[in-house]
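Model it.
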Amino acid sequence: MSEHNQTSKYAAELGAIERGALVRPMPELATIEVTGSDRQSWLGGLVTCNLAPLGPGNGAYALMTSKTGRIQAEAWIALDETRALVGVRRDLLAKVREHLEFYLVMEDAEFSVDDSLVWWLAHGPESEAVAAAARALGGVGTMGVLGELTTALMVLPRHAAPSLADSLCRAPGVVLATPMGWDRIRIERMLPRFGVDFEVGCFPQEATLESLAVSFEKGCYVGQEAVFMLEKRGHVQKRLVRLIGSASATPPRAGSEITTSSGESVGKVTSVVTDGERVLAIGMVRYKQTLSGTELLIEGAPFVVSCLDAHAE
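Modeled.
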């Protein structure tokens, strides 16, 4: 694809996320269905977000953490009248089920895996229209946020329509995301990707997810004390940051070493994309190098740390 056509494609997706809705499938997610009168309060004690004020039709992005505050899984949660649907990565499903079973004691709650459902997300001011389309197809369409993005979380039967993408993208201003287009958006907006930018075992603060997925006002959950103390009385040793380089720089590869001007290794690149004007990257670096404006080198080319979170101040 030519640079002009690639830029045009990015423009369509950027326009959708700013003025319409950008739709993307999440085939990597398996679905856990939680039922019972205590389903929401029980689940709330196992995830980092605050589910208590949410009602049917609401959705949320959260993390499941260990007692020591380390990420075990990310969870997309959609609430309807009788159940909570939890989307987790298929490769972590067995461990998540074991985690849930361990903490299910006397609560009126039960859970099961439903292989007949698929997940889609829509981001942007018109994402409610996509959620409504999902409900019209017999699915669950809920509304939440991801950072500053209004986000619809949708769970649909696989057989809901011959082409779910076509059905969900019929509203004006709705565009189907491409992998490269979403990478462009998520890197620019500092939305780390599980399995790419961070892994199981990271602290939420290492992955810069405390503002996206963690409530510091809610009641107890597994790992709360460790996550809270790290936030209020300390800091992690390393942390994801966004880095910006000149368009003239050769885009580095994921895994490329990040160094200081003196050649000291301080981290590695996890994601890279170019928008035609800049090279954008996400990298895990030592905490001392996370301040916005810090100048670093990637494969000899200069990059500047440009954070979008509270720790950038």
